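Changelog excerpt

This revision adds worked examples to the README so contributors can see how folded entries look when concatenated. The first example is reproduced verbatim below.
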Amino acid sequence: MNAQTKARESVREGASPAQQSWNRGRVGTPTAPAPVPTGRDCTVEGCGALASTPKPAPRMVRVTFPGSREPARWYCPGPCRAYGEALAEVRAIGGRDA
């Protein structure tokens, strides 16, 4: 029996003690994390607003990317900021379809 066959057999029998230790005893199908409103879905006032307006809230972050067709915008720090940066980067890719 080679290592791959042994691995398949152990999967069929359930998690090994080492696997259970690694997962802190958790077994079964993992649950999905709670959705986080990001970008367009954010409920914070001013999140996603054009940066031509004054800063809407104290912790807002201005997101812009050189050569992007997406205008500079204000976003919440964290997931909204990451969403804005990704959007601006995609809109900087050549072509008009992005």
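The second example, added in the same revision:
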Amino acid sequence: MSATRDRLIAQAKEYVELPDVRITSRDFLRRMKVSPNTLYRHFPSGGWSELLDAAGVSNRRRKSGTAAPSWDRKRLVKRLREFVKTHPDTLLTQERFCSHAGIARATIRRHFPEKGWSDLKREAGEDPGWQTEGRSRYTLRQILDGYGDVRRYLGNVRVTTTQLDRHAGFSLATIYKHFGSIEKLHINWEAYDRTGKVPDPLLEPPPEKIKPNHNLYDFPPLPPLLPQEPLPWLADPVPERLMDPTNPPPPIPTPSPPQTLEEKYAHISDEAIRKELLRRRQAAGG
């Protein structure tokens, strides 16, 4: 039985009447076998708080009490064996088991970190390989109707992949399998909404046109560069002596060695002044 908004409200009313339970969102999801995605798909604005308000039991919150038993490896294996026993003719997929047991996929990955769903099936004695249906159980008309329902629910806005994954009744893989992209789904839905018929063949989205930004091309045009107009850095002729290999350029003069203090003050004729300057420079460390 698939979860609906009315069924979740009835479950919330039944849940708050249970004696000595910890009335929290996590405890509710575990006891009533509801996945977080199901809760937020039917109550997208506030989730758990919105559900309590819709059920009229928003004042029945209780943080103390008996919590639902948490999942572990043994309990997951036991629940999978019970699912296989009670549903012998059902294709064993992770989505169906999680929906039946009311757990999230992250719970399986947390307790079976190496290969997740495959390790859980192997430990339960089942074939660890992934099973897929021979054909999709969704038709093109059902997908287009579901896409239109999500658009109308969100106020006729352009739907994102995150919103489709949360609110639609099918996965994104189903959309990509039939349409290839969200853009192709959108233009086919527009034709379907206008005519009431599924396009055959499916319409292809037009190629994306990139409009140039003309503000980037408003520079003034450059003047033409004529051959008779030499470049400024070629205007000055090269000296002939630089072009003559027999006339090398003069050598670079080598710097003279630094002068001593006596040589530096040798031009001072007054002996007393020269000695006083030498004393001051030597006292200053020069």
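Reviewer comment on example two: The mean pLDDT is 77. The longest helix spans residues 73-86.
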